[in-house]
């Protein structure tokens, strides 16, 4: 299981270009790390670098499935929660994003949207 202390090391192994972003910003906790992942993913989407953005999405999914509760909460409450604001505000971009979002993350997002209206 990946803990909040292990997340930076895991990211460094899986996606070194993202670990550099996290260390430059001096991420202090798991929420900071995930926030930087989201920022990097969004920047790749803006550049239409879908391959890099998809790699980030897959990494977020891996962290969610392999992480402890703190890591899962950060992925769900920062990364997935921000889909509407970061990716789904433009119809064309939304289609691109839906093509690369792993089904399990999209399921989490849909659950959040449905439950937010109760």
Question: What does this molecule look like?
Answer:
This protein has 118 residues and is mostly helical. It has one domain. 77% of the residues lie in helices and 0% in strands. It has eight helices and no strands. The chain has helices at 7-14, 16-24, 30-46, 50-66, 69-80, 83-86, 91-100, 103-116. The mean pLDDT is 87.
How are the SSEs ordered, and which strands pair?
Layout: H1 7-14, H2 16-24, H3 30-46, H4 50-66, H5 69-80, H6 83-86, H7 91-100, H8 103-116
Helix pairs in contact: 1-2, 3-4, 3-5, 4-5
Any idea what the radius of gyration is? 13 Å
Q: What is the β-strand count?
A: 0
The arrangement of helices and strands along the chain is: HHHHHHHH
Biggest sheet architecture? none
Low-pLDDT parts are none
Mass-distribution shape: globular
Number of domains: 1
Question: Which percent bin holds the helix content?
Answer: over 70%
Tally of DSSP helical segments: 8
Structural class: mainly alpha
Head-to-tail CA distance between termini: 33 Å
Strand proportion, as a percent range, falls in under 5%
Mean pLDDT: 87
Short description:
The chain has 118 residues and is mostly helical. 77% of the residues lie in helices and 0% in strands. The model has no long low-confidence stretch (mean pLDDT 87).
